[in-house]
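Feature request disguised as a bug report, sorry. It would help if multi-protein outputs had a clear separator. Right now it looks like this:
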Amino acid sequence: MHKLSFVSLWLLLGLLAGCVTINVYFPAAAAEQAADRIIRDVYGVPPRREEAPAGEDAVPPPDSRYESESPLWVALLEALVKPAAAAADINVQSPAIDRLRTLMKVRHRQLLPFYEQGAVGIAADGELRIRDMNAVSRLPDRVRLKQLVEQENLNRKELYAEIARVNGHPEWQDEIRATFARRWIDNAPSGWWYQDSSGNWKQK
């Protein structure tokens, strides 16, 4: 009977560990914060002050009176949950990422007049699109705009792939792209153009 209970306990712990791992498989919140840092850096906007989660400082320290009374299964479950919770983060540091960020920051300064003219906007998938070429009067500037948009979109794809690679999860690339797509638009200043999910152009 005791042997059966022990096996059942380990099966239950295994199922619980599996559920925890799935729930934090893609760290969506951490990815969004990382995207905001990168995008605001590219845009030349000061980073937001990162605050601790509400109530974090108010969490009381564990009461030692109950530590010795915790059942074995509680201790085992905590050991399984803590590594999974710690994995709910995303790494955006690598030489390749730093290089791409630098390229995009420099290019953004060249794109800025085209954003302000309404010639270029942000598509729903996070890529740049030429919205109104008529807003650019000079032919050399039109050629330059096409080059800038092509280079920017290429670097954005490279950035998403590199973030996924650095984190050891190439299958995250689509989710990273979707996260950045939302944040490129949300962090854009007033007056810029963007596409909604239906493909309609709107001005912030």
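(second protein starts here, but nothing in the output says so)
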Amino acid sequence: MFDAQSPPGVTAIILAGSRPGPDPLLDGSGVSTKALLPVGGRPMLAHVLDTLSRHAAIGAIVILAQNVAGLRADPELAVWIDDPAIRFMESGAGISRSVLAAIDGPAALPVLLTTADNVLLSAAMIDSMIAGAAGCDIAVAMVERRILLARYPQSRRTWLKFRNGWWSGANLFWIGSDRARPMLERWQSVEQDRKKGMKIVGAFGPWLLGGALLRILTIQGAAARLGKRFGAQARIVAMPQAEACIDVDKPEDLVLVEQILAMRA
């Protein structure tokens, strides 16, 4: 359950755009954008909106996409079109720039950032992220490999290796204050390499890359040092839910997510 001590009125931002180039997930799907891909009989975005709109900590939702008109025209999303707490916003060039524009506009801080393909998002995950990120300027949710493989050994992820384990991103991010802005601006230069873990680590400083490669840093220690460099308090939130790092990036992900949704039902 939502802790009454958590920050009230958190703004959720959902990244619901499409990356350049062909997407094998959309072949034969009948939809033109990933956010509308049917999963469990409903568009991916509908699952995420359901979870966020029902959570007591979420005060407003901003949906960022290149094709806002296409999303608003989908009948499965009609229930949210006139909701005053939900706003559709055209995204710009690049994720970081679009998020910064949203923060400068309708998205009041603090912000919980997620993606339309985070179909398995649950209230428990939101609770874990808010509790773990409370009081910091920027936080990233991660899942340690043993947590995931204990439940879903067939799942393939991109892993970052540190002294205290192998970690994969969970598509949940916390922006707690404007002190996160320099790190978001730095992220713009590595967005296209999001699946090349060590290249991303190195882009934030050779000392961080060396610490990761030599395994002399824990991932939490690396985040703290990185934040200090940018004048912010940065934190890794270790998620206890294995499903937190399972999104829909590949056809095999879609199969696994469908199976998990069926088990939940």
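Even a blank line would do. Unrelated, but nice: The CA atoms of residues 247 and 253 lie 7 Å apart.
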